[in-house]
Structure formats: structure tokens, C-alpha cells
Amino acid sequence: MPELPEMDNYRIQLSKHILDLPITRIAIHREKSVNLEPEAFTNALLGRQVIFIERRGKHLLFHLDNGRRLLLHLMLGGLLYLGTLEDRPNRSTQVEISFEGGMVLYFIGLRLGYLHLHTAKEAEELLSDLGPELLDRKMNEEKFKAIFSKRRGSLKTALVNQEIVAGIGNCYADEIAYAAGLRPSAKLQNMSEDDLSALYQAVRDVLIHATEAGGYMELPLTKDDKLTGGFNDLCQVYDREGEKCYRCGDEIVKTEIAGKKVFYSPGCQHDR
């Protein structure tokens, strides 16, 4: 499932291509992917412009010029592609939005995900349960420690809980734990001040690095996109079961915590 770095990469790149361009065509191939009747959804968007793109957690919010919001959650298997009708990807698309000038934004794999049209107030209410953004300018080490020092349970479970902090999923929870030298199973209530400091720095290092590297998406956003997916080969532990740890040489182990798969290096990650 796309996480904070993947969605921020999409936000940054799409902002360079589609802002302030009138929407000229809507194609809906799966009605369940939108929240209105296809005709109503289409009529509400034709002629409108996206003036700003915001990421909140794992969501993208497309701010329209009439004050409304398109709320996107790709969920498991969701992808975006931006191109012309001629270079349309050989994938099933659930929604297509065409812009003046010929560019089409293809929404792929929205079997569980969705693209919903809301008022600004509705969108705000729908996202109100999300926790704080860890890369927000208002976030600092003191606030971070206050969030996690009050929690109990495993590190992995806390990191992927969107009501505690927004944007982290299975991949980056494991990568952050590795960077901090902590096992995903480490108990928050047993962590020292130094552990929490290391965790805060790991969060920033991993999420910023992964975003700059383009995240782990399998499909480029455009035909000329050389960035998206650049983090695929940079994961230290995630999806590397049985391979050697780059840091200590131990084999990467795969296990489960609360039904979620977990990857870690037993030689250099420790419980607290």
C-alpha cells in the first residue's frame, strides 16, 4: 500500500503538471471507485481546475477552484499514471481525468481505493481522526516523544496506527525500526529517552530519504519519470527475508505482529 513517501512523491510531481488546467473529460470504469453517480461526478468536475494538491497521511487532496476537494486513497495495489491517450498504460483503469492540453491522469488498481468528491468541511471531517504528520514543521523531538512515551505495546503496531501518527505503513515501519536499531516488537513502555531520540531521528531520515528517492511504487508516474520507485532497491530489511543484513551480516527474519508481516535483523536490532 502506498505510504507517505509514495504519496508525497505523487503530490510533488503532479503539482508540476496538472495545476490550473481545466478538466475536459472524465471516464469512470468502476462506479464503486467514486461516491456519486457517474453523471453527477462528471458534471461536478468538468471545467474545474486543480489549484493545489495536499497530502494528508496516505491520502491526496486535490483542491478544486470552487473550494471542493477530491479525496484519493489508493489502498492496496493502487497506482497513478499521467500521460496522453497514446501512452496509456497497459493496465485496467477505474477512473480517468483528462486535462486541457491532452494529459490524462489514470487511476489504476482502485479495487479497494477510492476517489471521492467532497466539500472542504466534509474532507476535513473524514480525515479528522488521523494523527499528526511526522514531517510537519510543527513536529519536533519533544512533541514526538510526548506522543510515543504515553503509549504501550509494540513499536510496529504504534507506527502503523494512523490515529497515532499519519502516513506510515508496513514497509516504512520496519525501515524506521531498523534505522533506530530497535526491533519492531520492542515495547514502547520499555524505551528510554535515548531510544525515543533514535526513533525520532530514524523517522525523519527514512521518510525524507524515501521521498527523495521516489518511494517504492512499481510504475513510473510519467513516461519520462526516472524517480518514482527509486527506493525499491534501497530497503534495508523490508521484503528481504533470508538475505544478509547490510549492517551486521545476519539474515533478515520475517515474522508477524498482530497479523502484520514484519522484517528485521536480529543481529543489530534489539528489544527494549
Automatic annotation (TrEMBL):
<keyword id="KW-0227">DNA damage</keyword>
<keyword id="KW-0456">Lyase</keyword>
<dbReference type="InterPro" id="IPR015886">
    <property type="entry name" value="H2TH_FPG"/>
</dbReference>
<dbReference type="GO" id="GO:0034039">
    <property type="term" value="F:8-oxo-7,8-dihydroguanine DNA N-glycosylase activity"/>
</dbReference>
<dbReference type="Pfam" id="PF01149">
    <property type="entry name" value="Fapy_DNA_glyco"/>
</dbReference>
<keyword id="KW-0326">Glycosidase</keyword>
<keyword id="KW-0234">DNA repair</keyword>
<comment type="similarity">
    <text>Belongs to the FPG family.</text>
</comment>
<dbReference type="GO" id="GO:0016829">
    <property type="term" value="F:lyase activity"/>
</dbReference>
<dbReference type="GO" id="GO:0006284">
    <property type="term" value="P:base-excision repair"/>
</dbReference>
<dbReference type="InterPro" id="IPR035937">
    <property type="entry name" value="FPG_N"/>
</dbReference>
<dbReference type="GO" id="GO:0003684">
    <property type="term" value="F:damaged DNA binding"/>
</dbReference>
<keyword id="KW-0511">Multifunctional enzyme</keyword>
<keyword id="KW-0479">Metal-binding</keyword>
<protein>
    <submittedName>
        <fullName>DNA-formamidopyrimidine glycosylase</fullName>
    </submittedName>
</protein>
<feature type="domain" description="FPG-type">
    <location>
        <begin position="236"/>
        <end position="270"/>
    </location>
</feature>
<feature type="domain" description="Formamidopyrimidine-DNA glycosylase catalytic">
    <location>
        <begin position="2"/>
        <end position="114"/>
    </location>
</feature>
<keyword id="KW-0862">Zinc</keyword>
<dbReference type="GO" id="GO:0008270">
    <property type="term" value="F:zinc ion binding"/>
</dbReference>
<keyword id="KW-0378">Hydrolase</keyword>
<dbReference type="InterPro" id="IPR010979">
    <property type="entry name" value="Ribosomal_uS13-like_H2TH"/>
</dbReference>
<dbReference type="Pfam" id="PF06831">
    <property type="entry name" value="H2TH"/>
</dbReference>
<dbReference type="GO" id="GO:0003906">
    <property type="term" value="F:DNA-(apurinic or apyrimidinic site) endonuclease activity"/>
</dbReference>
<dbReference type="InterPro" id="IPR012319">
    <property type="entry name" value="FPG_cat"/>
</dbReference>
<dbReference type="InterPro" id="IPR000214">
    <property type="entry name" value="Znf_DNA_glyclase/AP_lyase"/>
</dbReference>
<keyword id="KW-0238">DNA-binding</keyword>
<keyword id="KW-0863">Zinc-finger</keyword>
